[in-house]
Amino acid sequence: MPQIFTASADTRLRTAALLLAIVFVGSLVFTAGFMNSTYLTSVGWVATQPVPFSHQHHVGGLGIDCRYCHASVEVSAQASLPATHVCMTCHSEIWTGAPMLAPVRASLADNKPLHWQRVARLPDYVYFNHSIHISRGIACAECHGRVDQMPLLARAKPFTMEFCLDCHRDPGPHLRPRDQVTRMDWSGWHQDPQWAHKQLQAFGIQPDKLTNCYICHR
Amino acid sequence: MEREQAEPPSFNRRSLLQAMAASLALAAANGRRAEADERALPYVNAPEYVVPGKPKWYATSVRFAGYLQPVLGKSIAGRPVKLEGNDQHPATGGATDLFMQAALLGLYDPERSQVPLHLGQPATWEAFDTDVFRRTAEIDRAQGGGFRLLTGAVSSPTLLRQIGDLRKRWPKMRWHVTEPIKEDARLAATNRVLGRPLQMLPDFSAAATVVSLDDDFLGPGPRQAMQARAWSKRQPRLFVAEPTPSATGTRAGDRLIVPSARVQILAQAIAGAAGVGGAAPAELAAHEKKWVDDAVAALGKGDGLVTVGAQYDEALHALVLLINERLGAFGKALRFTDPILAAPPDGKDSLGVLVDDMKAGRVTTLLILEAEPVQATPAALDFRSALEKVAFSVHAGLYADATANACHWHVPVQHELESWTDGRAPDGTAAIVQPLIRPFLNVRSPHVVLDRWRGGSASDHDLVQASWQTGWQEALLAGFVADSAPAAVTPTLIDRTISLPDPPSSDGLVVEARPDATQWDGRYGHNSWLQETPKPLIQVTWGNVVRVSPALARERALSNGDEVRLRFGNRELLGAAWIMPGQEAHTVVIGTPDAFAFLDSWRQAGVRLEKTGKTRVIASSQPIQDMGEFDYVRTVESAEEAAAQHKDDVSFYPPRKWDSPSWGMSIDLDRCIGCNACSVACMAENNVPVVGAELVAQGRQMYWLRIDHYTEGEPDAPRHHFQPVPCMHCEQAPCEMGCPVNAAVHSPDGLNLQVYNRCIGTRTCSAYCPYKVRRFNWFEYTGHDPDSIRAMRNPDVTVRSRGVMEKCTYCIQRISGARIAAKIAGRPIRDGEVVTACQQACPTEAIVFGDVTDPDSAVSRRKAGPRNYSLIEDANTRPRTTYLARVRK
Amino acid sequence: MSDIAPSARDFRTVTDEIVDISLDYPDRKAWWLCFIPALLLLMSFFISVTMLFSYGVGVWGNNIPVGWGLAISNYIFFLGIGHAGTLISALLLLLAQHWRNSLNRFAEAMTLFAVICGGLYPLVHLGRPWLFYWMAPYPNTMTVWPQFKSPLTWDFFAVLTYLIVSILFWYIGIVPDLASARDRATRRRYQVFFGLFALGWRGSARHWARWRQSYRLTAAIAVPLVVSVHSEISMLFAAGPIAGWNSTVFPPYFVAGAAFSGFAVVSMIAVVLRHALGLRNLVTSRHLDLLAKLTLLTGMMTAYGYWAEVFDTLYGSDPQELETLRDRLVGVYAWSYWGAVFFNFVPLQLLWWYRVRTNPVLLFLIGLSCVVGMWMERYMLLVTTLYRDWLVSSWQRYHPSFWDWSLFAGMLGVFFTLFLLFVRFLPVISAFEIKEAMFEEKEERKEAGRA
Questions:
Q1: List of residues 6+ apart from B365 with CB closer than 8 A
Q2: How distant, in Å, are the alpha carbons of B61, B446, B466, B473, C276 from that of B469?
Q3: Which chain C residue shows the shortest CA-CA distance from B763?
Q4: Lesser CB count within 10 Å: N end or C end of chain C?
Q5: Nearest to C195 among A5, A32, A161 (CB)
Q6: pLDDT digit string (tens) for A117-129?
Q7: pLDDT tens figures, B540-550
Q8: Which run of H or of E encompasses B708?
């Protein structure tokens, strides 16, 4: 009866075992990376919008304040998108005939809302309130990024629970003076190392409570 | 809370919110990233004053049995999502009842009739209009002869004006009224004793002693909120004589169980003792005599009031009027005004007259405006067959019900939350009803429907505004027309003669019919919130039962769920028996609307009852109601006596220091009348799903706030207790220890949280919960909701999906709202700033909520009282929800 | 002592006898007769789980208050059974009880499969089973960890550890026999199959030395698990503030019960195997006698647990506890209590007699009765406690639905399928350890001869 396992069989077996181990570890690493990939977090992806609206032009170029269009951001949970007639306040004067703006004019004409694609978005069990963040001096750019540098709007930060918690655990470094909140390029918090701490005091922010589940989930 | 005049936003403007309710309207994934696209639709022209994401409050009213019930409607992005009591209103002062709370679902009910039906087939409004136009031409020729209008009870000035106009045009037309549950006897009695029909308005806050002769004035009905609020202000000493337990009976210090036939004799005895005179009462049994003597003694101390159930006859009401006059109650505990509901032209038999005419063929055209005469009228009338003799019959109503199917035309009408109308509250205060939303179905206001008959084409808004030249704005902002209640009348007795009929026979079994506590006369049969709400005292949902006394059950070997057949004459009624502790031995109680098909009156003697041998599954939310030896509900002899709370909270750990605010609740068991307003309010506020009879029977009901009913002692004459049980928010919560994934955790302000999106459904928390207040989504209850129901959901509360645990959160969305508002304003949260849905709904202010670390807060002051105790403290869970013990008298 | 391991025969025949079973199964017809029903039951498992996952836990009879039903009581039942194997092999190995060598292999296999069944239950009973991995501590974008105070978290660890250790112990133990099977195999596919899993075992002195180290090491790890795992599982109940659960007697009570049901099952299997595979000379009546004694011992310990529970309740005289005791003795589920008492302890008493202990048929029946009894006990402990807890208002009956039962049947299917495959293709008895036992016998006898 011939031997079916040659002397090298053991070696091959060991190699196979080793490979298996490597594959296992590798898959773990891959999963970890995948969970944070922009494929899942949508960071940097541009959605197809009815109108190729450029924040770079309107915010960076013309210097229009965020609140001009996102009017309810200071008083409501929702920042709100601008109504068509807000666009038309200017565009009834300039670029009146621009084909690019045809959908806007159409929207106003037959009273049909524009169908934007949401870029910044949270699951419906997360209750984010813009007004409280603004009033505490969290800049728009903290979550939405430098929209003044985005020709087409894309998500700037991964809206994972981790992202929210990082800030809620240690809000200090993310705070600004209230009047600087909508500025894109502010970087003044390096002047006074104690500033953030003072801000926390001033606003009575208690980080230990900020990480509580019901701050965001109801 | 700011209030606005309605600038009704159209349904498609709830865009932003719709988009916020993610996951519902996902476009197909576009292949570049895992996350699917989601549309966001901004306004085209943003309406003024509307801030996206901010609720707006409109003062309006909902209709019930001809009256208006004042409410404040909470509207988010143009969708009404919650109704609350109008705290400014003179009648209710913010009190609500379960019908008020459930009206919201009535608006969004997917079963609502949506298109006109001609002979049962879908038709168009145009076809209807042309048909009506053709008809009106004929009626014109006959000057209205043969044309009849049938409505429910009416208090709306506009509708009355419209009917008046119609009669001017058609002098020969006639208007009839049907209201299945009515109070004719009271009006008739005032008419006899005081010379003209007057509305009696008992004021229980002005009475020190109230003797109720089978009058359930705290029970369900249009005046429940108003009367319960008044009663709770003073909580007068209460004597009740009744054949079957009622909400009022459970609050009585002295409750006498008598067959309804004895009620008149008790009244005579009291009359005799009060010196009214009249026939000497028949011999009283010992316990009856004692009750009467105590009652008379208490009445003698002043501020006494005697009331008798509306179902008793005119003569008895007249006698009671005389007693009250002698007690000096007139103008104090008992006030009178002119009738608030328009009197039916043909007196109380208005419907009878109509049916006779119909049978005699004198009716050629019949317009039924929001009434259900086919099912909700005594079977003896046989309205259905009479209706067949009518050449042209039209039914206008919310649902394509039995009457609709029996008529040639059915046209769908608007719900009051989407239309303009007006009317009067139970105290007579007039109000204008403004829409919270533009109609999203192809329906018309009843006013418009009626207007079309006289060829008009006005909108409901114009029709209503025409009756209110002045004070329109103010009325809309306040939710009522100030000082519009009819002036109080100080009547003079014109007739002191007492002519009482012989007490009715009580041979054999006596069947008492009672208004259904959750369906009323059947008009709420479509409302699943109300269907799923347990009927107080029997805790039965989805359908009614035949209530039998424990004695009868012993005699006939009946047990809960046995099917029984009631026979009387050639009529019979099948139903499931349900043993009602504290019910008079030979009294059997059935509810509306079943009663209409079986009885012609509210009481019938000589009924036979037999077992069919079958048994039925009863969807009861609480199969066992005998408290046994336990002390869940504690009773003290006097308000000063302590409820035996042992204070020694033993623990191996140092007591935890809670910083302010830290939330807690106190529930006064003496005030709770078990009306379920809180329970329904909770369903509406917290998107609590409805599961249906089958699952309730399996013990899978979802109420976050349940009202337990306990009987204490002897089943034949027990004491009845109601106990609302929300989550106790234990400081030492077993559920939190059990959860393996941190889905049940404690918040720094003392809330016991349930994080739905973290829950994996091990159900350990529920197994460990001593109060079993946690509810589990056994199936996908919400995922298949129709769009209209999704539109109704409260956007501030997560809609739970299959496989997660849920429970009362102390309305955490309201707490968070208040916290954020306070932080932005840079101030602490004020006491009373956070009002939970149940607390707001409660007509008797039994529920108080607030910061327990602040000794001056309302809730702390209550908890400091001697009656305060916590439920099953042996479990040592340190509940934040505590109770005030009942006081015996 | 002569009948612990038969000395009359030589080592070769022992090996042949055992290994040939897997190489050339004696009675294939009988095997298929058992295997086909097992497969049908397995099908019921897949159907039930499909139903469960597509509609939700609602397809079961669970409700509030009885949020846990058959699933959890069966979970405890199966894990309980899974305790005998490790106890027999590991503990008795360390105690150098050679007679266990004829039993340990199939006892361990039984353990393994029972643990698999038990472990499946908590997974499928979740409301959202696809998120079961949230029980495991792993770094995640939610930066949330399991709640380490919860008994369930530790259940998760306990069952997982127990499963891994059981597999290791069983596999290490079987390697030398796989090698002998490989060497005896004539058909190529057997040669390859056994060859691969024998991991190139050549029986060199070095191999044996390594093997002995690892085998004893795993045994040392396994033994404490026997006690810890079921103590942990008892916490699932004992940690709840519910009358009838909240008791310190539970951990020992559960462990005793677990071993009890386990030994009962092992005796049943021993009886069946020795008959079906004609191994009477390897699994002798002496083995049955010892198994029966162990069953009796652990049975009496369990009985003590019952008694202690009742005594505590009466002595503590807490109204809620008394209420629960009353429900158990005379409530609507009294059948489960008295059923447990009867099936567990009444037939058991027969084992005081040697004749009964060594009578295979009787032993099998008694074992069966114990298993039924222990199942009833698990059911009783769960249902009678939950269906009537603190508040009268939340009292509700519990009726397992069709899908509860079909899943239970399916779980039995999983167990039998796996076990029959094991019997069919692997050495059911540890040949080399038998030989070891025989050898030591000889030595002993030599000693005796000299003296």
A1: B135, B139, B146, B147, B148, B390, B391, B392, B393, B394
A2: 20, 21, 6, 10, 101
A3: C67
A4: C
A5: A5
A6: 988 889 889 999 9
A7: 999 999 999 99
A8: strand B706-712
